[in-house]
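Protein 1 of 2
SEQ + STRUCT:
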Amino acid sequence: MRAAIRIAGWSIVAAAGMLPAAAAVSAPAVVRIAAFNCSLNRATEGALRRDLSTPDDPQARAVAEIIQRVRPDILLLQEFDYDAAGVALRDFQANYLARAQAGAAPIAFAHSFFAESNTGISSGFDLDDDGRVAGGADALGFGEFPGQYAMALLTRFPVDARGVRTFRKFLWRDMPRRLLPDRRETPPAEDWYSAEELAVLPLSSKSHWDVPVRIGSVTLHVLASHPTPPAFDGEEDRNGLRNHDEIRFWSDYLDGARYARDDAGARRAFGGRRFIVMGDQNSDPEDGGSRHDAIRALLANPRIDARFVPASDGGSEAAAQGGANATQRGDPRFDTADFNDRIAGNLRVDYLLPSKTMRVCGGGVFWPARSAPEAHLVWGDRPAPSSDHRLVWLDVSVSGAKCPPGSDPKASARQHPHRRRRRARSSS
């Protein structure tokens, strides 16, 4: 039996009798945390609910098998269509995660957090200046219907409902040093959007969440977001600029900025001691078309430990796909997404960035080599078996204690990769 708390447009769902924060699950020595842009989005409203109402959807089965094989304790799902009643999320857990997939053991999460997304909510304005008010590009965040491309948090540990903060409604115009787009051919600067449009346009294309999770006697703040892709625009770079500022929000938040009013109306500095910034940031620190300084600044934030970078064998192998991959500078072991090789190539865009108050004990990217038994879960096109993104995970000692025996022995070999450059990738 499950119970739900609904507060100001978001829900916390937990097993009945486990709602109070005091009922904390004892903390394991190591907690596995994962982020997965699982591409469980559909073209029309209600389609995901229909697909997940039975256990027969091939993509959902592949996504579930990946999750079962990695077995995270805390999991952020992205591009998972939102519905207010949480039917799709409930059915994904019951029909897919709770059923063994290809021999992998079922997995259960006692608690979840899901909330409204700006995607698909009409702005009422012609934001892309195509002469009409219609379509996803004129929504508060790109989407063809409300809740498309949303995100959901699943966790073995209780969510502290009283401490949750969301910033879905915070306006882009209210961010200090914001980078608003300029129409370029006419003065003044920053005039792509009118004053009326800026009065409704939020910073978040989906949302920014600060979700406190109780792990034993300590609290871990899950700082989750999914900035817009820095593409699908013109010379004004409105999406690239928004992506930059959506990422910069977390740097400011961790640095103690008080400018952002949360959706409950509070404006205060972040006071958490343990946190993890996680999600698809749609920005690679070396390659791709984003404005790299925002993600680089986040990686260099003095409160974040970015020394260990999850890696895979499949990412290195996929670099041989050629195209844009051949001239990229980043190490392909750290790539987390397999994009169109003619345009973007494979990039590192999905992140788990823990606070220095914890200790990283290992991690990885679920991108097995083509010869591996699980290769069929990620290799393939039109469409990909699961997603064009790969699940990324970290094992952390939340208390900061020494990692137990058996932790990833390769951790020390993956230090500071974003500080060095390498030769261009070969397409052969």
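Protein 2 of 2
SEQ + STRUCT:
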Amino acid sequence: MSRSSTLRQLMSTGADGAPAVTAPDTAPLSYGGLRALVDRTVAALNGFGVGRNDRVAIVLPNGPDMATAFIGIASAATAAPLNPTYKADEFEFYMSDVKAKALVVEAGSNSPAIAVAGKLGMKLIVLQPDHAKGAGAFSLTCEAAGGDCVKGYAEADDVALILHTSGTTSRPKIVPLSQRNVSVSAGNIAETLAFGPKDCGLNIMPLFHIHGLMAGVLAPLSASGRVFCTPGFNALRFFAWMDEAAPTWYTAVPTMHQAILTRAGGNKEIIARHPLRFVRSSSSSMPPQVIAEVESTFGAPLIESYGMTEASHQMASNPLKGARKPGAVGLAAGPEVAIMGENGELLKPGEIGEIVIRGDNVTRGYENNPAANASAFTNGWFRTGDQGTMDDDRYISLTGRLKEIINRGGEKISPREVDEVLMDHPAVQQVVVFAMPHEKLGEEVAAAIVLRDGAKPNEKELRDFCAQRLAAFKVPRKIVFLEQIPLGATGKLQRIGLAEKLGLG
């Protein structure tokens, strides 16, 4: 089947009067209204001097405005959505790293990103919600309007979306995703899940993350479906939203599914009133026991899928029809997927190696990082950094991560980033941040520290120091003080296996 190659094509499917974007206690925005909003946004940005391939940082709360602003901005320029809970240092790193030309914030925002944008000489664009015209309707203003830009709708090879992936041995890498990458990926997800005009997705995923943007928003809209945009995940409000939205499906990470299950017993009537076609899980592996509990609670299949930023999200998925194998992340679902050996050879079923992918949804390469690209691509295949196997039925299973990224319930954390913050504390001589097992989140952030002579800070002081510079999910939950950090055979600090060595298993 043919795939859209731009967001403009992708958003052309729904009937003008059909609902596209909805939200709690808000009238729906129709497809006709959404397309008109995107047209106005493209024109407004061009008038501000922002056009194709100019980077626009977006710092907005989760909800319908974030969803529609992303679509509008990415249709004209390059959207760079950022976690609104970041501190000033983090905003400065990410916005300067991608060379953002402008920042979009909500009217009345007091985000530290605003001062950073001023320091970096960026244009400040203010979004004013206009929900009388429907969920996600807004207007934009900019005091520093005008200037040169490439006007009009973005084309297939223009960069639609730019995100950072967490780096372990170096700074986080910039992942540019083209209009073609994200449009093809949205089509892949829609095909996997058989989306259509009768579908409504209850979105609880953050919209600064590839999972929420692609599976939560673009995929259902590419197939004329409806998206119900919540302010973000809240287990206490999930079932009230479910009653209002009347969804046919939702997608989440395993920790969210587990929190929803704890409240499902008291909400059986709502579940019965709104039968789901399926439930989807991605971003981190789901324990088979939880899969079974979700399926019995909702009376619907749990579709586990496997994605990453560099693939514009989805790489593999268990099928809607056909066998779903607990513990497997499913079949290739869009790109080609293979298992590669150490010397670049493709392996046979059952052999363990690195999972590699290729296809129109895969990034053409990291930005300004020839060394990373040289190691990430082999014979045209992108190396995921994940280790796994493929069985005789071509179902893919993950056996471990080759990288040292900490996966805290689907939130990916670069240990190096936390290292560098802790090293700024005057009492710290040496530090290594690593993953510590956690029964609900899978992994949690921990740090081993050697103090300078005579220094005596306690664990709370160091955690508070981190909390001033890092988003809450990156702050170490456990700090261990050591005389000496265990080294590997080559004298290097080793993150992998450190939790076990220190008895934190």
